[in-house]
Structures are given as C-alpha cells and as structure tokens.
Design a protein that fits this description.
globular; 459 residues; binds zinc ion
C-alpha cells in the first residue's frame, strides 16, 4: 500500500479570488490561502490568548484561534474566530509583542465592532464557510504540503488582505481603533503584562512607508497608525505598573522555538539559522536546524539532530512529534508510531493532531491488527478536533482496509464537507447511506451532510 508523505504541517488550502494590490491594477487572480495546523504553535498561542480573553470577559464566547500560514504580518477577528498569521508570530521577537496584538484584537471582539459581518461569521459552522464570507472563495481541498507553496501563497494573501481592507470589510473605524487600544491596555494591565510589545509593533507600522509596488503588510492597511494614536498609546502604556515587566524566560524560550519552526517550514533552508544567528548553538537554532534537515536533508542526519534535542529535553512532546515525522519520511512507520505515542503521552494539551499522526503511522505500518487501532486513534483525534480534513482521509483509508466501505464513504464525505466541497461531500454521503443501516448514527450524519446548504446559497 502507499501512504502519502506525512506532513505535520497540515494545511487547508483555500481558493481565493482577489484583486491585485494596489487596487488600481485590478488583474483578477486566483490565490490559495493556507491555514496551518500545528500542535505546538496552537498550544502556545492558546496560552497567550486565554488570559486576555478572560480579562475581556470572553472566556465563554467560544473564541477559536486560526493560524494562517502566511509570512506577512496580520491578525484580525471575524465572528468568534481570531486569525493570527505565522508572519506575525515570527516577526514578534517576544511573546509580549504578539500578546499585545491579540489584546487589541480581543478589544475589537469585545467591543462588537463590525457586528453584522461578525454575526454572519459567528454562525458559520466551518472554516470553509468563513472563507466564503470573507470573500476568499471556496475551500478546495485538504492537502499536505511542504514550504514552497506556502511561500508562493504569501503575496497573494497580502493582496487579499489589502483588498478586503480597502473595501472596508476588515478595516475598522477610527473610533473603534481607539476603543480597541484602550481595551487592550486594560486587558494587559489586568493580566499583569506590559503594553510595550503592542506599542513596539504599532510603532513599526507607523514608521513604515506605504509605497505602491512593494509588499505591504495587511495589518498596516487595516490599522492605520497616525502619530497621535501612537503618542496617545505610549502615554497610557507608560502609566501601567507593568510597563517594564518582561515575559517569563520559559515562555520566551517556547516562543523562540515556534519562531524557529515557522522559519524552517516557511522560509526556506537558511531561514531559521538567519533568525537565530545571534545564538547559533541555542535550542531554537538547533530546533530550526533539525526541522530544516528533515525537510531538505537526509532523515538520518535529521534524526541525529532531533535525538540530541530529545536528550537535552526529554519531556518535550514536539521533539517526539518531529522524530515521528522524520521516521515516517524514512519509511519506518512502526518506530514513527512509537514516537507519536510518546508525543501524546507528553502533551499536556491533548492535541487531536498528534492522535491523528499516531493513527496514520499505525496505518502505514500495514499490519492488519494495527488498522483497528489506527481507526480508534484517528477517531479520538477527530473527537477533539473536527475540522481536520486530512484526518478524514486517513480514516477513510483505514476503513477501506477493514472493508467497512460505508464508513469509508462517510469519512470521505466528512473530509470534503470540512474542506468546503459540499457537492463532493453530498455524493459521498449518498454513497455512504447506501451501505450504512438506515437510521444508524453514520446514516444520520450522512443525511446532515446531504441536507447542508451553504449560507447565502438558496439552492
Ligand atoms: Zn484594530
């Protein structure tokens, strides 16, 4: 049997129709917008976000963080989702810088800014529908991919962001900006954090010149930073007793690790080394080097590098996860399964993504007795995290091997559904119903998929 190359850097590619930037150029182009799923980055960003949302009174609002794999600096809230770009994480040298941006965005959320759009987006059940409402078109497919496509997608999204901002879709009113700034200061103070990072980010945007023809970060377009706004913010920020407070060293360390990872996955071979050239023997540089070697070099060298990191930090679940990925690439799925199992044991956040990787490795090992285990693990992963199109692909493969064709058809239907391919989803759901007992839970779920209508689509 063949198993596609594992990429823990899972992406959902969205097909977007955007105008080029500057808007006058108006050449219509199709672009892909990647959403990235990664257990380590998701866990850290959740830790950044949770106290802020609590201070904002949004703990129970079910806010979901979505990571967009794009090198530009951007973050915005839409409905109950907060979109954060990997470029914003990588550009932020400290946790405090990105936490400041998160606090500002939480201010928009709590202030009910752009309510009407938000209402629609809040009702959107899947990421695919969100993409549609944001004018990004339909989601095409769940696909695993390396770094090249991501780099190409970058400019496209900067353009999409610029165009959306130009139309006022995601650009806020000036009064809303002031409100969000004040709210952010409040949330940061209440969580005992400095507003210095937010100030630093905003100052950077205020000093950059917007020149046509060069790439402009979408955040800069949706967030004009006139001098008086920065000055105002600085005066207030300096009044906080926490203004000089630094991020805890352990948090800074984890932040550096995800920056190294993002650089390695999205910036090409020398990227992580460049980012940490000031400390080339530090663990962030070594982590970036191990991932770069996994992506571009030999699995044997990559394995040596990750094993050295594991010896230094045996309780880091994400080192085990990378080890699993390297072993999958080296076509050693049974050992990969052991590494993923170790990652799951060590992961305090119980990421569904690790569970799916584990199931995938068991499936790739190709032993009949392990296929049932694979199904159980992938299902556990899906229970924690429904919107993972790749998980359904592996689940369908596993059911196929077990001869449970109805379940395989339903899993394929789910994968299409969460990718936004509703027509394909209906076809497979219909096929699933022909195999599954009428009225069984699977049959009922297939009926839900068949009945699904995209918002705004009357047919
Ligand atoms: Zn804003």
């Amino acid at each position: 049997m063949t198993v596609s190359l594992v990429a823990r850097w899972l992406m959902v590619w969205m097909l977007a129709t955007v105008l080029t930037f500057p808007p006058g150029a108006a050449a219509l182009a199709q672009r892909s917008i990647p959403i990235v799923r990664d257990a380590e980055i998701e866990a850290l960003v959740a830790e950044y976000t949770r106290p802020i949302l609590k201070a904002a009174g949004l703990s129970k609002a079910g806010v979901e963080i979505v990571l967009v794999n794009d090198p530009s600096f951007n973050a915005f809230v839409a409905g109950r989702r907060m979109f954060i770009y990997t470029g914003a994480l990588m550009t932020s040298e400290t946790p405090n810088e990105i936490i400041g941006v998160i606090a500002h965005e939480a201010g928009h959320l709590a202030g009910h800014h752009q309510e009407r759009l938000r209402d629609q987006l809040a009702r959107a059940q899947t990421m695919a529908v969100v993409a549609g409402l944001l004018g990004m078109g339909a989601v095409v497919a769940g696909a695993a991919s390396g770094s090249r496509g991501a780099a190409q997608a970058g400019t496209g999204l900067a353009m999409a962001g610029g165009e959306a901002a130009r139309r006022g879709l995601l650009a806020y009113q000036r009064t809303e900006e002031t409100t969000a700034d004040r709210s952010a200061l409040d949330y940061l103070a209440r969580t005992g954090q400095s507003a210095r990072g937010m100030l630093k980010t905003f100052e950077r945007f205020s000093s950059q010149l917007m020149l046509s023809g060069t790439r402009v970060d979408p955040y800069q377009i949706s967030h004009p930073m006139p001098r008086d706004r920065i000055a105002n913010l600085e005066t207030l920020a300096r009044k906080s007793p926490y203004f000089d407070r630094k991020d805890p060293p352990a948090l800074q360390q984890r932040h550096d690790m995800i920056r190294a990872k993002i650089a390695a996955y999205t910036g090409g071979q020398g990227s992580a080394a460049r980012l940490f050239r000031a400390d080339p023997r530090g663990s962030a540089a070594l982590y970036g080097d191990a991932i770069t070697t996994y992506l571009y070099g030999s699995p044997r060298n990559a394995l040596e590098k990750i094993d050295a990191l594991i010896r230094a930090s045996p309780s880091n679940p994400y080192f085990q996860e990378i080890r699993g990925e390297i072993l999958m690439k080296a076509n050693r799925p049974e050992q990969a399964a052991e590494a993923f199992a170790a990652a799951i044991r060590l992961d305090p956040h119980k990421s569904g993504l690790l569970q799916v990787s584990y199931g995938q490795a068991l499936l790739a090992a190709g032993k009949p007795d392990q296929v049932n285990r694979a199904v159980a693990e992938i299902r556990k992963g899906i229970d924690r995290d429904r919107e993972n199109p790749s998980a359904y692909r592996y689940l369908a493969q596993a059911y196929g091997q077990l001869g449970q064709i109805g379940d395989a058809e339903l899993a394929t239907a789910e994968g299409h559904y969460y990718s936004g391919n509703y027509q394909e989803a209906r076809i497979f759901a219909t096929r699933a119903q022909m195999r599954l007992p009428a009225g069984s839970p699977g049959w009922v779920r297939a009926q839900d998929i068949i009945n699904h209508r995209q918002p705004g689509n009357r047919n």
